[in-house]
Write a structure and sequence with these properties.
The chain is an alpha+beta fold. The chain is built from 15 helices and 9 strands. The strands form 2 sheets. It has a 5-stranded antiparallel sheet with strand order 8-5-7-6-9, with helices on both faces. A 4-stranded mixed sheet has the order 2-1-3-4, covered by helices on one side. The two termini are about 50 Å apart.
C-alpha cells in the first residue's frame, strides 16, 4: 500500500508516536522523511505550506495539510472508515475525545513541569514542581480507579484514548515513576505495560524500561565559593618559656612515635589505583585528540582545522556521530537551550580524553533545535558518554566519515556556519 502522506518532524519526536501507532492499527503507511529542524522548516517551500513553521506537520497524498500532533493523530485514526480507534458508539467516541484532552491537559502539561528542570531546559521552581506532582498523582488516581475493572480506557480494545495517554506517560515511566511511586498505581502500570508490549506500539517506540530510581533535579554548582567574613585577630598571648623535659622522657616519646608510624604503615591499606577505561586498551591511533583540540582552537575551522582533521583522522580508531536533541518541541528561549547544552557537557567530564563535539542551537525563541556532531574514540558509544545523566535526551547516530556530504556538514557544524545558527558550545 502506498503511503497516505508524510509527517515532517525531527528524529525521535514522541509527539509523532501516537500518529504512527494509530496508522499501524489502521493498517496504513505514513512516511517520515529526513528532516533538518531549524533549517527545513524555515525554507520557503515549507512555510508556504505551513506558515508557522511548526512540526510535526502532515502533508497527505491527497493534498491535506495539518499541524499540531493531536490533529494529525485524530486524522490518521479516523482515516479508515471501519476503524475501531474511536470505539463502536457515539458515547464511546465522546469518551475517546475526553481521554485525548486528558492526556494533554493533565498528563503532558504536569509531566513537562516535573521533568523539564531535570533535563535542564527550564529553571526549577519548587512551588510549580510540587503542584505538578500532586496534579499528576490526582490524575493517576482517577486512571487507577477506572482501570481496576477495565482492561482499556474505552470499550474492549485499544483506542486512540489509550494510545494518547500511554504516549504521554512514556517519559515519566522511564525517568521519574520509580518502583516506590508505582506502588500506588498498580492498575495504571498493568494497563501501561499491556499497551507498550502490543506489537504496533513496540514497532514505533521499542522497549520501554521502567525507572528504578527516580531522576531528581540537581542544582548547578556555584563556580566560586562565597568569601567567608574575616575573623578578627585575637590578641597574641605571651609565649611561655618552654619547660625542659627530662631526656629520658623525650627518648621514650621518640621511640613510641616510631612504633606508631610502623604500625600505620602496616595497617593502613594503600589507595587502589583508579580503574582504567576500556578505551585505553584500544590499539594506538595517529589522531591525538589533544593536538586536534589545540589546532581547532588556534586556527580557522574552514579550511585549516578541517584539513588537519581529515589528514590525521583514523576511521578504525575513531567514529563520528550525528547528535540530535529528542525534545526540541519543548525548548523555549535560545539562551536556555544553550544552557542545556552546557549542562550536558558538564556531565560528560569522564569523556574529556576520548571525545570532541560541537552542538549548536538553530532557530529562534520558542522555535529552536539542538544538533551537532561528536568525534568519539572507538566504534561504539563508550560508558564515559552513555553513563552521563542527560544522554537519554539525545540521539547518537554513527555516520560515514568518508562521505563528502557528511564531511561538509561536519565542517559547517564545527565552524558554526549552519543556517539559522544562534548559539553553540564546543566539548573539548
Amino acid at each position: 500500500m502506498a503511503p497516505i502522506g508524510k509527517i515532517y518532524t525531527y528524529p525521535s519526536n514522541f509527539r509523532v508516536a501516537r500518529s504512527q501507532i494509530a496508522a499501524a492499527y489502521n493498517g496504513l503507511e505514513v512516511e517520515i522523511p529526513d528532516f533538518q529542524y531549524g533549517t527545513d522548516n524555515k525554507s520557503a517551500d515549507f512555510l508556504a505550506k505551513f506558515p508557522l513553521g511548526k512540526v510535526p506537520a502532515y502533508e497527505g497524498a491527497d493534498g491535506t495539510r495539518l499541524f499540531e500532533s493531536s490533529a494529525i493523530a485524530y486524522y490518521i485514526a479516523a482515516y479508515k472508515d471501519d476503524t475501531t480507534l474511536f470505539g463502536r458508539t457515539k458515547a464511546e467516541a465522546g469518551l475517546v475525545h475526553q481521554w485525548i484532552h486528558f492526556a494533554d491537559s493533565e498528563i503532558l502539561k504536569n509531566g513537562s513541569t516535573w521533568i523539564s528542570p531535570i533535563r535542564g531546559y527550564l529553571p526549577f521552581n519548587k512551588a510549580a514542581h510540587d503542584t505538578a506532582v500532586e496534579s499528576l498523582k490526582r490524575a493517576l488516581s482517577v486512571l487507577n480507579k477506572i482501570l481496576l475493572t477495565q482492561t482499556y480506557l474505552v470499550g474492549e480494545s485499544i483506542t486512540l484514548a489509550d494510545i494518547s495517554v500511554v504516549c504521554n506517560l512514556i517519559h515519566l515511566y522511564k525517568l521519574v515513576f520509580d518502583k516506590e511511586f508505582r506502588k500506588d498505581y498498580k492498575n495504571v502500570t498493568r494497563w501501561f505495560l499491556t499497551a507498550v508490549n502490543q506489537k504496533h506500539f513496540k514497532a514505533v517506540i521499542g522497549d520501554v524500561p521502567l525507572c528504578e530510581v527516580a531522576a531528581k533535579y540537581v542544582a548547578p554548582k556555584k563556580e566560586k565559593e562565597e568569601k567567608k567574613p574575616r575573623e578578627e585577630k585575637k590578641p597574641r598571648e605571651e609565649k611561655k618559656p618552654k619547660e625542659e623535659k627530662p631526656k629520658e622522657e623525650k627518648k621514650e616519646k621518640k621511640e613510641k612515635k616510631k612504633e606508631d608510624e610502623e604500625e600505620d604503615d602496616f595497617d593502613e591499606p594503600k589507595p587502589e589505583p583508579k580503574a582504567k577505561s576500556a578505551l585505553d586498551s584500544l590499539p594506538p591511533t595517529p589522531l591525538v585528540l589533544d593536538e586536534w583540540k589545540r589546532f581547532y582552537s588556534n586556527n580557522n575551522t574552514i579550511p585549516e582545522a578541517m584539513n588537519w582533521l581529515w589528514d590525521h583522522f583514523d576511521p578504525e580508531g575513531w567514529s563520528i556521530w550525528k547528535v540530535d536533541y529528542k525534545y526540541n518541541e519543548e525548548l523555549s528561549l535560545i539562551f536556555m537551550s544553550s544552557n542545556l547544552i552546557g549542562g550536558f557537557f558538564n556531565r560528560l567530564e569522564r569523556a574529556r580524553k576520548y571525545a570532541f563535539g560541537s552542538l549548536i542551537v538553530t532557530g529562534e525563541d520558542h522555535n529552536n533545535a539542538i544538533s551537532g556532531y561528536f568525534i568519539i574514540r572507538g566504534q561504539e558509544i563508550p560508558e564515559e558518554v552513555y553513563d552521563a545523566a542527560d544522554f537519554e535526551s539525545f540521539t547518537f547516530n554513527k555516520v560515514d566519515s568518508a562521505s563528502p556530504e557528511i564531511r561538509e556538514d561536519i565542517a559547517q557544524y564545527f565552524a558554526w556556519n549552519k543556517d539559522g545558527f544562534k548559539d553553540g558550545k564546543v566539548y573539548k
